[in-house]
What we know:
alpha/beta, two-stranded antiparallel ribbon
Amino acid sequence: MTKEKQISKAVIKRLPRYRRYLHELQKKGVEKISSKDLSKLIGYTASQIRQDLNNFGGFGQQGYGYSVDYLYEEIGNILGLNRKYKMVIVGYGRIGQAMASYISKNELNFHIVGIFDVRQSIQNVEFQDAVVLTCGSLAGFVEKEKVDIAVICVPTEKAQLVADTVVGAGVKGIWNFTAEDLDLPENVAVENVHMSDSLHALAYYMQDME
């Protein structure tokens, strides 16, 4: 995949969905699938699927369709899942605990190496092989361990301070679970998970069903 070609965010957001459905097909022993049949499973049009994949070279063969195993692997490579990432969780309240549990159980490429919270009592918590420390140690730990991603689960008013701290220590990716829209350098990637935005969108769609 060439980095020179600008791929829209909408296309990138669809790739994990393709990969998730392909994994389900793998578990069922399906070896190949057409864009038409993939369309029926995922809900996007066959044309949309082909256009999305053609951004990265296509991967299909006329009259054959897509190899499920190959496409699953290639989408993983496109998404950067062919390498390991070191992560820290900052804020170990309910959301932080839920994210730590989810990542450790489901995301083999993402390794939580540190958990940080303002509470001194958090030091008594054990989470696999992650170091559990108070936030005063955050910058030094991130720099020493060469952490790739910070998962921010702190109160909204603390989010920018935490982001500045981890970015200053070398973090290049932030998974933000606060309501704060972070001000970050262009060379830092951020994925915002605004839960209220999602809930309010759900309420909007439900209006048509009453």
